[in-house]
Amino acid sequence: MEFGFLDLLELLGALGFFIYGMKVMSDGIQRTAGSKLRDILRGMTRNSYLGVFTGFIITCLVQSSSATTVMVVSFANAGLLSLIESIGVIMGANIGTTITAWLIAFFGFKVKISAFALPIIAIGFPMMFAKRSTTRHFSEVLIGFALLFLGLDALKSAVPDLNQNPEFLEFLATFTDYGIFSTLIFVAVGTIITIVVQSSSAAMALTLTLLFNDVITFEIAAAMVLGENIGTTITANLAAIVANVHAKRAARAHLIFNLIGVTWLVLMFPIFLDFIKYLWAPAQNFLQTIIPDLDKSNAELQLSLFHTVFNVTNTFLMLGFIPLIAKFVTKLVPSKGIEDEAYNLEYIGTGAMVNTEASILEAKKELLKFAKLASRMSGFVSDLLVETDSKKFKKNLNRIKKYEEITDQIESEIVIYLAKVSEGELTETASLQIRAMLSIANDLESIGDINYTMARIIKRKTEDKIYFVPHQRENLLDMFQLLEESMEIMLENLDNDLQGNQLEKAYAAEKAINKKRNELKKAHLESIEKGEYKYESGMIYTDLFSAVESVGDRVISISEATTGKIS
Question: What is the DSSP letter of 107?
């Protein structure tokens, strides 16, 4: 009987079944753990060894190295992890993902766990309607676990029977006699499979199933496993194409680390396989005491051992080179510099969001950068006021115009991002934080608008040859100096947590700006009466110091929002 198109669809459907079950289980575990995963990451990455252990533990918990990698990138973007710490966690994730292979080899082929799947779903299903979110999320874990092994059972049935399809084995045999090139061919096969199914765990399950059904030999399966280690990094790198500089660096580090590991192992492939066989003898004796009929899944467990030993060995060989990898990827993916970075979202991208807390931290970091840009823009306006060189004046004016366009774009992208975050389940605290950040983004965009308006007023003053008397210019510069001090306090508040900020300094700075504005307004009316300067000059003068005070209003509003007070 030939393996036809419908059989291929059945195989792909079974693989999709397995992947869906893994996704449901992984998402459920992440939601159940919530902020605890963040606490683990923040508290256990002080050095490379702890980082590796952290990556291992989290991947064991969520059963997905891709989920761990995305989480690491997310926290790196939010400033919780450095690049070096991120690399350590990613290395640990490589070891953690080998646990999936052991689970499949132990239970998927030994125990008829699919027979327990429906009772597990029966237990989990009523929990989906519980009031407590933790209970609902745990139901996803149970249902996902059941679906995963139902998918594996379907996968075993969908793999072609070689007794009825011997030509498939003959086809594979034609590629097994080329030495190291044969190894490279099946490394490429494993890479492609992982890229297609978008999951190294699913690719590993397929490899184990093919080995269990004697479709491929142990050597071919081992080479495919090496390819799967490369394939799992390609997915992250494709996602990082549209992401920020931190995501790109973490993704490149993962790819380089795995490529180096696969390279040295391909060169030592026969020796390493002999080493695994040497290790398997005592391991087999130990496992025989636990599993009496071990022979039924002997090769699958041996492949799991190969997977684990490779990743553990590669990790400990590369641990000392983490700083070098970090330097290399930093050069490979350089920052575009202060001016360039001011024009791009650095901490949030278009990639997947891990959880609400991490996403809020990323948005908060982006808002701080946005506020620094707005503060720098106010400085440009102040410089424009005293600039006498026409070329420099025009250049500064164009810069302010460009910054105004940037503030519009950044506000729009931050609002869209926060709207996506709001689509998930939010705690009361998270909801308040998002409301505060939306208010802050709006105020920062307004500051950009007011700054650009002041720049156009100064431009009109220059074009119409309207001049300030010395004390007008000095008074305006004093106002800008008070505004700069107020903005420095605002930046300090934004750089702290969104709760517990002290507003006394911010209120004092705002009071000083208002007092100066009132003094200038009173003095201006007296100067007009005395004829100290022309009416046109007075109008522009009034517009400018009123605009500076208006910026100050937005600045204090931002400082208030950092404490949860939204006006």
Answer: I
Provide CB contacts within 8 A for 501, sequence distance 6+: 493, 559, 562, 563
Confidence of residue 422 (pLDDT cuts 50, 70, 90): confident
Q: On the CB side of 355, how many CA atoms lie within 13 Å of its CA? A: 21
Say how far apart CA 552 and CA 495 lie, in whole Å.
19
Cα(193)–Cα(186) distance, rounded to whole angstroms?
10
Residue 193, token pair as written in the block: 């499979």
Asked if residue 368 lies in contact with residue 495, where contact means CB atoms within 8 angstroms, the answer is yes
Contact predicate 352/70, CB 8 Å? yes
Instruction: Look up the CATH architecture of domain 347-561.
Output: Up-down Bundle (1.20)
CA distance 279 to 225: 18
Instruction: Count the Cβ atoms, other than its own, within 10 Å of residue 185.
Output: 16
pLDDT of 552 strictly over 80: yes
End-to-end CA distance of the chain: 74
Q: What are phi and psi of 480, to 5 degrees?
A: -65, -35
Residues in the chain: 567
Question: pTM of this prediction?
Answer: 0.56
Distance, CA of 351 to CA of 360 (rounded, Å): 15
CA 531 remoteness from chain centre: 62
In contact, 406 and 373? CB cutoff 8 Å:
yes
pLDDT band at 341 (very low <50, low <70, confident <90, very high): very low
Identify which has the larger pLDDT, 272 or 53. 272
- Give pLDDT, residue 108: 59
- Residue whose C-alpha is closest to residue 56's, from 330, 316, 282: 316
Centre a 10 Å sphere on the Cβ of residue 238 and count the other Cβ atoms it contains. 12
pLDDT digits (tens, 9 = 90+) for 294-316: 555 578 888 888 999 999 999 98
Average pLDDT over residues 456-472: 88
| Coil, helix or strand at residue 387 | coil
- 347, 78 in Cβ contact below 8 A? yes
Measure the CA–CA gap between 551 and 561, rounded to whole angstroms. 15
Question: What value does the mean pLDDT of the chain take?
Answer: 78
Distance of CA 272 to the CA centre of its chain: 35
Domain residue spans of the chain: 5-332, 347-561
d(CA 157, CA 148): 15
| Block residue for tokens 């007023």 | 457
